[in-house]
Amino acid sequence: MNDPTNGLSEQQLEVRRMARELAREHYAPLAARWDAERLPLPHEERRRLGDLGLLGITLPEEFGGSGAPVLDALVVIEELAKECRPAAFQVFECTTGPAAVVNLLGGDELRARCLPPVIRGDATMAVAISEPDAGSAATDMTTRAVRDGDSYRVSGSKRWISGGGHADQYLLYARLADVPGARGIGALVVDADTPGISYGAQEKLMGFRGIPSCDIHFDDVRVPAANLLVDAGRFRELFTGFSLERLGNATMSLALAQAAVDRTVDYVQTRTAFGKPLIEFQATQLTLADMVLQVEAARLLVYRAARGAGRGLPSPLEVSLAKCTANETAKRVTDLAIQLHGGNGYTEEYGIERLHRDAHGWALAGGTPTMQRTRIVSELLGRSFDQRR
């Protein structure tokens, strides 16, 4: 199909071409095996991404990054994610995930210590928010960080951590003050090898294969006070930072939907039934048109939020609109792609079922479409809603 610029600059188009070539020539032949064997991205591949400058696209030049707008990173994430989600996830976590939040909210010393290894591909950082009894209701978290001299003592458990058990550091959300709800929550950076941290078994998920996930337990873990990112009382600022991660999430979903469209366009023009190509049937045309409509609508919302963010934080409303739309688009469009591929869509050979499995994962991660709908109304009306009453 046509490849519109969508208003991208020449530099962004060149970055996209480079990322597309890397994805198709290097990662596409490897992705199916990594999915089947549930293998995380090898360290040398992470360093490859670092050497190419892809892990520091949005991070400051003084630390080895490029200092580019977030849209530049999303362009790369989309191209990599069309072929290989584990590779795209590394760029996602560095440029729109916890490393980006540390850059936007952290002090100079913490940034100088954490960001250069991430940009080089020598270290990874994951975000730890959810708990066994606090998923969508994040403010129900009970993990505590109590100040004790020049350190914090952390106790509690975290769940659904993408990168869990493999990351070198965790951006840990915890209760830093003995007050209820959001007012008591802040965040610290915790080194993965700190005494008192233990890890559960790796999850065997429907999708997200190649992106590790496990429970993490903190048993009186001492974290230096210098690792504090955001103190209690700044939860709104912290979660506005998390909106950047949601924008990366929306781009992963966009990539899955676009990949499903691209593969379906090729398939329906070459596959025949009743003596003619599938594309000659009106039912195929209508289904394909719906797929393209949904993907293009999602792209416009993702790009609008990214352009609004520039080199800073995006509008939470625009991000929730983009994430909800892109998440649901990915699920619907990959499902329609399976239908248009018929029996072939249900096999692993064509890779469509893998797109569909991953689409459901990205819709769950970072706040479900249901939660995004409540966020949309909350941001629209400028008020919060207490779901507990």
TrEMBL record:
Domain Acyl-CoA dehydrogenase/oxidase C-terminal: start-end pairs: 240-380
Domain Acyl-CoA oxidase/dehydrogenase middle span(s) in chain numbering: 126-221
Positions of the Acyl-CoA dehydrogenase/oxidase N-terminal domain: 9-122
Keyword Nucleus: no
Keywords (A to Z) from UniProt: FAD, Flavoprotein, Oxidoreductase
GO molecular function, one term: acyl-CoA dehydrogenase activity
Record InterPro entries: Acyl-CoA_DH_CS, Acyl-CoA_Oxase/DH_mid-dom, Acyl-CoA_Oxase/DH_mid-dom_sf, AcylCo_DH-like_C, AcylCo_DH/oxidase_C, AcylCoA_DH/ox_N, AcylCoA_DH/ox_N_sf, AcylCoA_DH/oxidase_NM_dom_sf
SUPFAM superfamilies: Acyl-CoA dehydrogenase C-terminal domain-like (SSF47203), Acyl-CoA dehydrogenase NM domain-like (SSF56645)
GO biological process, one term: butyrate catabolic process
Keyword Metal-binding set for record: no
Names of required cofactors: FAD
TM spans (from-to): none
UniProt family annotation: Belongs to the acyl-CoA dehydrogenase family.
Listed name of the protein: Butyryl-CoA dehydrogenase
Organism per entry: Streptomyces himastatinicus ATCC 53653
